[in-house]
Amino acid sequence: MEITIKSPVDEKEIENLKMGDRVLISGTIYTARDAAHERLIKLLDQNKKLPIDLKNQIIYYAGPTPAKPNHVIGSSGPTTSGRMDAYTPRLLELGLKGMIGKGLRSKEVIDSIIKNKAVYFGAIGGAAALISKSIVKAEVIAYEDLGPESIKRFEVVNFPAIVIIDSKGNNLYEEGKKEFLSNFK
To answer: What number of CA atoms fall less than 13 Å from residue 17's CA on the CB side?
Structure first.
């Protein structure tokens, strides 16, 4: 079963998602990778306003390639989420409710996901061109000098993702591994 959610998200909606749920996201999501995250944290350290309001938002860890003619965006696949782990708890404290990427997250991030009732979604690496088809509008919001790593606002329709870590800390990477290994006992 696929669950459809609208972003910005409602906290109750996030709390109802369970590890392993397949989700189709429509609405607004933002892109940001490690260079942009570092700049966001520097602004916070200087008590300055962020270029985006993170409350109830979803950040997609991606650095899309430039758009080809007649396309909204180029390939837009997920990047390794662990590169954002040093910055993520602070952003979750500001109301960020979802992150989309690939790969494992640190214990500190998982603890912060639980504390802040957020969720970590996985997107399929290697399916960047397919994922890009769900992006109907893209615009640079901040840090244009970072090129593909600038912060962009995407309008998406049925962006495919899977709940990797739910708001209770259930982790598909851990549970999936246990289930797989149990088949060999």
So the answer is: 36
Is CATH 3.30.470.20 the classification given to domain 2-182?
A: no
Q: Is 71 marked active-site? A: no
* pLDDT value, residue 181: 65
Q: Structural domain boundaries of the chain?
A: 2-182
Q: What is the per-residue DSSP string for the chain? A: -EEEEEESPPHHHHHH--TT-EEEEEEEEEE--HHHHHHHHHHHHTT---SS--TT-EEE-B-PPPPPTT-S-S---B-BGGGGTTTHHHHHHTT--EEEEBS---HHHHHHHHHTT-EEEE--TT-HHHHHTTEEEEEEEE-GGGGGGSEEEEEEEEEEEEEEE-TT--BHHHHHHHHHHHTT-
* Active-site residue, from 14, 17, 37, 132: 37
pLDDT tens-digit series, residues 69-126: 888 998 888 999 999 999 999 999 999 999 999 999 999 999 999 999 999 999 987 6
How buried is residue 35: exposed, middle or buried, by Cβ count under 10 Å (0-12/13-18/19+)? middle
**Rounded to whole angstroms, how far apart are CA atoms 155 and 132?**
11
